[in-house]
Specification:
alpha/beta; Hypothetical Protein, Haloacid Dehalogenase-like Hydrolase, Chain: A, domain 2; seven-stranded mixed β-sheet; 38% helix
């Protein structure tokens, strides 16, 4: 069985920018009893608190849970409290180049966006994220807006030329994540390998955007075993299976 189960967040553990539900909370609690768990997502640390940590039981084994915000450009580990181990932040010149290129690409894409909720561009220190409908857009507005990713591809395609070398991936329902060259979910997985001393072959990655261009795709390039899911309900079924298989394995070893 795998020692470390790694999850994407939006579309995998919860709906876009929404809290995990009570059932998912209970499943993660039980999963942490039998395996180590990591969550890697485009959101920054406060988003993890709102969506996951604030909804887990107080007796959760947080020491076995590893949080990697902004697509693995940051790493938080629990030791009596949550501690940040690293943050791969942009330099001022990198930040300026990204913002200028992004603004040009958005303008040239000429997307018909009638209403936005909050800022479209967010600087998360180690990641710059474009959210087409705004950072505070309600879920019902985002669902179905770009199911086939065709709208965001109009922005991503020119960015891959003007920001050659940077990691540019589509995530969530309406967003595009930009990180430093080579600093993406693959980088995060390799950091987990290094810090936890766990082999890639002993990990399992679960996400909803493992296709090329999706923000889970870099994870796939590490050679880690991956499972593509449609939504959090499918993720729940996988977690149940992992827990059942791990429990059966332990019982077999005892006998």
């Amino acid at each position: 069985m795998k020692k470390l189960i790694i999850f994407d967040l939006d579309g995998t553990l919860a709906k876009s920018k929404s809290p995990i539900d009570d059932e998912m909370s209970g499943l993660l609690f039980n999963l942490l009893e039998v395996a180590q768990v990591s969550i890697i997502s485009g959101g920054d640390w406060p988003q993890f608190e709102k969506q996951v940590l604030d909804h887990l039981p107080k007796k959760t084994l947080f020491k076995k849970l590893y949080i990697l915000p902004t697509c693995g450009t940051k790493f938080y580990q629990y030791k009596k409290d949550w501690k940040k181990l690293y943050a791969e932040n942009f330099t001022n010149s990198e930040r300026k180049k990204i913002l200028e290129s992004l603004q040009h690409a958005i303008k040239d894409a000429n997307l018909e966006i009638k209403k936005t909720w909050g800022d479209q561009i967010e600087d998360r220190g180690s990641q710059i994220t474009f959210s087409a409908l705004g950072q505070k857009a309600p879920l019902e507005a985002k669902e179905g807006w770009d199911d086939d990713f065709s709208k965001r591809k109009k922005i991503v395609k020119p960015l891959r030329k003007s920001l050659e070398g940077f990691s540019i991936e589509m995530g969530g329902a309406t967003s595009i994540d930009i990180t430093k060259p080579g600093i993406d979910k693959a980088y995060g997985i390799n950091k987990l390998k290094e810090i936890l001393n766990i082999k890639i072959s002993e990990m399992l990655y679960i996400g909803d955007a493992l296709f090329e261009g999706g923000n889970d795709y870099p994870a796939k390039t590490t050679g880690v075993d991956c499972i593509q899911v449609r939504d959090p309900e499918e993720t729940k079924n996988i977690i149940r299976t992992v827990i059942a298989c791990t429990s059966d394995t332990k019982e077999t070893k005892k006998s």
